[in-house]
Specification:
Number of strands: 4
Number of helices: 18
Radius of gyration: 23 Å
Strand order of the largest sheet: 1-2
Order of helices and strands: HHHHHHEHEHHHHHHHHHHHEE
Structural class: mainly alpha
Distance between the termini: 11 Å
């Protein structure tokens, strides 16, 4: 349906930002270096530089593949899952590709929403250090097998932070992008500067700490050890693809998608490789803590000597960085749930937009689930559960890229990688699947350094991914009920897909959905 000026209506979510907005909100993925680098450097020593570096390069390659896919479907929001639906269509047809997209969307949600509970736990702990308040009486709401003790005051602060950061997410992409710009600058400038600080005091750098890329003396490096560490590393270093969640809301379409994802991948690659490299060069491999705030403070103390100003210089940027990641966790995977619902794979409840044009119900769902995971009290345990979804979704994106380049090589693409890149995508997909199954199974025991820890946390992640099936059946029941009442009609989308075909087969609308004063939505 055309508007009064003869133009087609805007499809999907409101186009309220540009490549810069997608880039700065997507920095929430790059900022996750603050959480993983200390754990990796403590657990693997200088070897961690290689482990992070290899997978970060693969993550940058993923961003470039997503940039190509995003330029073909610039109106699809939610990032990776939305592209999975379209890219597998030439191979398996409409119905199967929709389910692949649905599984990817649900797995992506499991991958991203736990960023919020992880980072509010860390933020609350940093606030306790900066403002010198007690974490409160320790509680273990889920037991010590599944979780770790956490202070009751920390829990209450976490809940307050989730609600506070939810506010700019609720009021639309424009406010969210502005809020993310402030947080991104406040966090990334100091964190980037800390990479260069040692070069102003050359005596603080000891390159012999890096030579040979050795593991700590007490660590036996095996294939199982490497695969187990690759598992949580991948949860972090490929998160720079987060910019893809917002290209569907960019006014510049394909141009903005290409710029945002390319910039995110290149900047992320620099941050993720340089940070552990300088940590090891300055501090060595015999680290006694993996707490990010303590490690960053130790790092600056080795360069400048101890001083009270450093606590604030390091602590405030870390808090801003973590807050940005929480914002993206609420906003970004809310959009992937929205897109999966738009495509008919998840319940219609996720499809509802608030009056600011953003998926309000999906974001509320993220906040509630985040509050539950806070009770686990352990970022590492949440990493393992979460990656049961995230790595699967990202791997499917690379497989979909290969499929589409192989079966639709002549489809016009505003941005096109060299042809050989499809084989690299297939190779990375195979490697990531091996890490997903073998590394994921062994990660709880090795990452938590507990030989008695079974694969329960990893299996819990797989179980949550499997919940896609009942959620889809619920959606199918909703559609059958609406069809029986005559309120469900099929409608071709107005946007042209990458195949040059109007619409997405199987998309549906209901006659009762439009809000007052708006024309019926066409999907």
């Amino acid at each position: 349906m055309a508007s009064t000026d003869g133009t087609l209506p805007e499809t999907g979510l409101h186009k309220g930002t540009n490549w810069w907005g997608a880039f700065v909100i997507g920095l929430a993925g790059t900022i996750l270096v603050t959480g993983i680098a200390p754990y990796v450097v403590q657990g693997t020593g200088a070897l961690g530089i290689i482990l992070i570096g290899v997978m970060t390069i693969a993550g940058c390659f993923l961003c470039l593949c997503l940039a190509e896919l995003a330029t073909m479907w610039p109106d699809r929001t939610g990032g990776i899952p939305g592209y999975a639906t379209e890219s597998f269509r030439p191979l398996v047809g409409g119905t199967a590709s929709r389910h692949i997209g649905g599984v990817s969307g649900w797995a992506y949600w499991l991958g991203w929403f736990p960023v919020a509970p992880i980072n509010v736990i860390l933020t609350a702990s940093y606030l306790a250090v900066l403002f010198n308040f007690s974490p409160g009486h320790l509680i273990s709401p889920v037991g010590t097998t599944w979780g770790a003790p956490i202070g009751i005051t920390i829990v209450l602060v976490c809940f307050g932070l989730l609600l506070a950061i939810f506010i700019p997410a609720w009021f639309g992409i424009r406010l969210g992008a502005a809020f993310a710009t402030v947080l991104g600058i406040l966090s990334m400038l100091p964190l980037t500067a800390m990479i260069f600080l040692p070069f102003f005091k050359p005596g603080s750098i000891h390159w012999h700490n890096v030579a040979g890329f050795h593991a700590p003396p007490h660590v036996a490096v095996t294939v199982t050890f490497i695969f187990a560490w690759f598992f949580p590393i991948l949860w972090n270093v490929i998160a720079m693809e987060a910019a893809a969640c917002y290209v569907g809301e960019c006014r510049g379409g394909a141009r903005d998608a290409k710029i945002a994802l390319t910039a995110e991948g290149l900047f992320g690659m620099f941050i993720y490789i340089a940070t552990p490299l300088l940590f090891v060069a300055v501090l060595g491999v015999a680290l006694t803590t993996a707490d990010p705030l303590t490690l960053y403070l130790t790092y600056t103390n080795h360069i400048f000597g101890p001083g009270s100003w450093e606590k604030w210089f390091v602590g405030l940027p870390l808090i801003a960085a973590l807050a940005l990641s929480v914002l993206n966790a609420i906003m970004g995977c809310g959009r992937s749930l929205y897109q999966a619902s738009e495509d008919g794979q998840l319940p219609r409840w996720f499809e509802k937009k608030n009056r600011h044009g953003v998926p309000g119900n999906a974001m509320i769902f993220n906040v509630l689930c985040s509050a539950i995971l806070v009770l686990l009290g352990s970022p590492l345990r949440i990493y393992i559960i979460s990656n049961g979804g995230y790595l699967l979704s990202c791997s499917l994106a690379l497989a979909g890229y290969f499929v589409y380049r192989q079966l639709r090589p002549d489809t016009p693409r505003p941005f096109r990688l060299p042809t050989f890149c499809k084989w690299i995508a297939l190779l990375v997909f195979a490697a990531w699947m091996a890490i997903y199954f073998f590394g994921g199974w062994n990660s709880p025991k090795i990452i938590l350094a507990d030989p008695h820890q079974g694969p329960g946390l990893y299996l819990l992640g797989l179980l949550i991914v499997a919940l896609y099936a009942p959620l889809y059946w619920w959606r199918a029941w909703q559609d059958r009920r609406l069809a029986a009442s005559g309120r469900l009609v099929t409608a071709p989308a107005v946007a042209v897909t990458g195949d040059g075909v109007l619409g997405t087969p199987g998309n549906t609308v209901t006659e009762a959905e439009p809000s007052a004063g708006e024309p019926p939505a066409v999907r």
